[in-house]
Amino acid sequence: MRILDNRYRCDPKAAAALAALDGVEVVEGDVRYANAVEGAMRGVEAVVHLAAVCLNKSISDPTESLDVNLLGTQNVLDAAARGGVRRVIHASSASIYGNATSLPTHEDTPPSPLTPYCTAKLAGEHLLSFYAKRSKLSWLALRFFNVYGPGQQTDAYYTSVVLTFLRRLAAGEAPVIDGRGEQSMDFVHVTDIARAVGMALDSTASGMALNVGTGCQTTIADLAAHLIRALGMDVQPIFRPREVLVTRRAADIGRIRETLGWEPTIGLEEGLASVIEHLKVTGELN
């Protein structure tokens, strides 16, 4: 196994642990540089493409977002096609739906991307189809919903709200919620995400996008209340008047269930407990 990473969001300890495993090679490089991607792709049978700049940053810096998320993806797929890679699993996103008109949201729902990040993720799916028609490349695009879990970074509010809230609570501060907290997310644990990626790699299905979520909505206000109870704290969330980007999110997971046999196995309560335990072990939460 070979991992290409620019170490921008890398946990040095996690990277060192991976590099120490038998059969694992960690290469420092960036998907924006075609030569680095081509070198990392040499002799590879299958690729899992996870590199991206987060949604929030794409709003403040669209140029960098498109450079990484779109041109970087093009570099990955071009190298894969020319190098004879058999299969690519592409990390797409539920954000391509924008404010979905129906819940739970099916893969056939017309996309309505709201940011450069979302636009690039959708374009990546179209690039997969383009390269597959010109090579023997098979592929699946996994549209991740709101991923959370131990070890998550906090540089993107909408994808790390769990950790953002917990770190405020650990500091004795109340969670800050945009709007009235009625916006909902479909939280899916990173363990279930990893399992979906593995099953996608092993599958023979090709040429389609699959939602990866739970189908369950959790409002941000309910999330904050759950975490406050879990830590036994006596605080109330702070609500700040602010427009929210997406108001509702829940995945229709019928297609991935039928195609891969995948279903989520970790409920929200168990998943949040795993994050809390990790923060306690690392000393970030007492």
TrEMBL record:
It holds the Pfam family Epimerase. Its EC number is 5.1.3.2. The keyword Isomerase applies. SUPFAM superfamilies: NAD(P)-binding Rossmann-fold domains. One of its GO terms (molecular function) is UDP-glucose 4-epimerase activity. Coiled coil: none annotated. The keyword Oxidoreductase does not apply. It is an enzyme of class 5 (isomerase). Keywords: Isomerase. Residues 16-213 form the NAD-dependent epimerase/dehydratase domain. InterPro entries: Epimerase_deHydtase, NAD(P)-bd_dom_sf. Belongs to the NAD(P)-dependent epimerase/dehydratase family. This is UDP-glucose 4-epimerase. It comes from Actinomadura namibiensis.
